[in-house]
Design goal:
It is a single chain. The chain is an alpha/beta fold. Helix content is about 45%, strand content about 15%. The strands form two sheets. The chain has a seven-stranded mixed sheet. Strands 9-10-8-11-12-13 form a six-stranded mixed sheet, with helices on both faces. Strand 4 and strand 5 form a beta hairpin. Helix 5 crosses helix 7 and helix 13 runs antiparallel to helix 14. It is flat and about 85 Å long. The relative contact order is 0.12.
């Protein structure tokens, strides 16, 4: 690990009113002191107490750079567990660059992407799962993703992983001790107890793995595709959900020939919506391409919204669409419900089992509230209880959990087959190591560097 003193701009570069330049390392306070002057030119930063803020100026030799507020924080009670100085200056590219440049001239180097958080991890202030939560917070796309990331930063995932590892380690230690000292530690009756404990751990791992799909959707949004025949109101629905005229709406069937993509929030849930070309048999070459795209997007979607014109009878195109989405999570919107309805809900339900059918009118803006509630029920059991539920939102965590789960499954198989005790110890140790990768106790330097390389410069 590099232990020199680093610096970087910690705020977005632009036309913001305030900017922050952050310094971390053993010499952070001394370096800041070389470029800082207090109002009366008597106060020195090296003499001030920790976690205090000081008004003054930054100078490049004898040239005034900016008027600033300087926060001084001494190790180990800081973000990186090193000495930290944060210079609050005026925002803007030029002034922040000049302050960073003068700090570099006086003994710092430019921080690598994510190096402040990387030092917090390497210095033991946070584990790897909490470090990754920092980036998730920065990139949260909706309130539930944010709440889930904050919960992970506070230790929801970390605490659960530590708890499972402690349980597994106890069993490993007991088996190893009994094998090393059979005269004093007996395994009689232990295997029945191990089966109960291994089954519980196995079940808890399964629950975490199962949360990953919902966790991914909380984090990235639900990939949603709108399908239906031409002129049934797909584009009108997109415009209604987005809140502005994104798609061209006309009475001419087949107006939409390519896909339109928009991201929205519905009661805090993110939807990545794709409006597709109307699906029908056509001889138009351009429209054919749009129809094929619609089929492909529907195949890959988390959710399909099938829009039906309730005022027109279903035909062979509807039959083809329903056949295409039979195995998907589908919400059927019987649109144009302000007109006389000729489409039977029963016919749709017979074709698409476990489907929700909602009467809507994009013209009169009806049925959307019910639509929002159905989405929550389909994906989150009716409500998103981030406060009570741990959601796995990181693919790396999911893979490690899956490996631990498979190892615990091997333990249960060995118990069922009455294998020798050392078999259990091997698979328990494998599960222990897999869980360790989530919190950073079983990872190599290359993986650590790869994770933090995705962070922004000043974090």
């Amino acid at each position: 690990m590099k232990t020199d003193t680093i610096a970087a701009i910690a705020t977005a570069v632009g036309d913001s009113g305030i900017g922050i330049v952050r310094i971390s390392g053993d010499e952070a306070i001394e370096i800041a002191d070389r470029v800082y002057r207090s109002k009366n030119d008597k106060k020195r930063l090296v003499d001030v107490k920790s976690h205090t803020i000081h008004y003054g100026f930054i100078y490049d030799s004898d040239e005034l750079v900016d008027e600033v507020m300087v926060a001084v924080m001494r190790a180990p009670n800081t973000y990186t567990k090193e000495n930290i100085v944060e210079i609050d200056c005026h925002g803007g590219i030029l002034v922040m660059d000049q302050i960073l440049e003068v700090i570099i001239k006086n003994g710092c180097r430019i921080a690598e992407p994510g190096e402040f958080t990387k030092r917090a991890f390497l210095n033991g202030r946070i584990d790897l799962s909490k470090a990754e939560a920092v980036m998730d917070i920065i990139h949260s796309k909706n309130e539930f993703a944010l709440r889930s990331s904050v919960k992970q930063l506070k230790g929801a995932v970390s605490d659960k992983v530590h708890s499972l590892r402690e349980d597994i380690l106890y069993e490993i230690a007991f088996i190893e001790s009994a094998l090393d000292d059979p005269e004093h530690i007996s395994l009689e009756g232990y295997l029945e107890k191990l089966e109960v404990r291994a089954t519980r751990i196995h079940g808890e791992l399964k629950k975490l793995i199962d949360s990953a799909d919902n966790g991914k959707m909380l984090k990235d949004g639900i990939n949603t595709v709108i399908v239906g025949k031409p002129n049934v109101g797909k584009s009108s629905l997109l415009n209604l959900l987005v809140g502005e005229e994104k798609a061209i709406v006309t009475s001419v069937a087949g107006t939409t020939r390519d896909v339109l993509e928009e991201s929205i929030r519905l009661n805090g849930v993110g939807l990545n919506i794709i409006d597709t070309a109307g699906i029908r048999n056509t001889e138009d070459e351009v429209e054919k391409i749009g129809v094929e795209k619609a089929r492909k997007y529907a195949e890959d979607a988390d959710l399909v919204i099938y829009v039906v014109d309730a005022s027109c009878a279903l035909d062979e195109n509807d039959e083809e669409i329903m056949e295409m989405i039979t195995d998907k999570k589908v919400i059927v919107l019987l649109n144009k419900s302000d007109l006389e309805q000729v489409v039977s809900e029963d016919r749709i339900i017979k074709k698409l089992t476990h489907v929700s059918v909602i009467k809507t009118s994009t013209k009169e803006n009806t049925g959307i509230d019910e639509f929002e509630n159905v989405i929550k029920r389909l994906f989150f059991g009716g409500e998103i209880a981030v406060n009570d539920q741990i959601y796995i939102t990181n693919q790396r965590h999911k893979e490690a959990l899956r490996e631990a789960y498979e190892s615990m499954e091997m333990v249960l198989h060995s118990l069922a087959d009455q294998m020798p005790e050392d078999f259990y110890s091997i698979d328990l140790m494998s599960a222990y190591a897999s869980l360790g990768r989530i919190i950073g106790e079983e990872v190599g330097e290359d993986l650590v560097n790869e994770i933090f390389s995705k962070f922004c410069m000043g974090k």
